[in-house]
Predict the 3D structure of the following.
Amino acid sequence: MPRSALDRARDLWAGLAGVPVTFPANGDVKVVVSPGSSLCPPGWTGVVALGGAILATVPDAALAEPVRSALPDPGDTGLARIPELLPVLDVLGPATLAYLDAGDFVPAPATAEVDRLPADHPAIRALLESVPEEEADESGLEEITSAAYAVRDGGDILAAAGFRPWLDTAAHVSVLTASRCRGRGLARLAASAAVADALTLGLLPQWRARPEPSRRVARALGFLEHGAQISIRL
């Protein structure tokens, strides 16, 4: 029987913890010491909530109990209050984590042609440079290793998407639309092509997002929000 997207996502994040660990069962919380964790930047604390369970990594054993005390009930995927309960220097997130089973995929209607370009194509670089640096970083488009799936108007790229494999399991999807072209469904169109390619490769499409417009695109494609992730520097 094929494993669900949630099960695969839990295995993915457990694999990123940097130490031998399994994702806790529903209703459970697990905090592990892992200076080399990939749940967060080096030296930070990483917290992932998925489907009613929470896995956290801390860089030092002295932080394990304070972090455990600050974690919400496992059924609560809202992680925004954690920084309020700890001596925090910096925070990344929280962001929702959405995943897609192949049978739930809703391809975007083919309202325009989507071109397959190299990820380092000059027009992709031009798109990234056309938006504020914060938006470019949030999109993650600069980090894709797949092809770039682009909706173009002549030489200009209106929207582009792609993905980066994580542990040969997930396809972390990134998408960016030119500022002047938003609200026209172009992000969904570009991302749909990237997701279709990821599914063909047997990868688990992952959509990590904070802005609501990005989350709406994911939901339109059939993604289900299973949890959230946050990184904290204590």
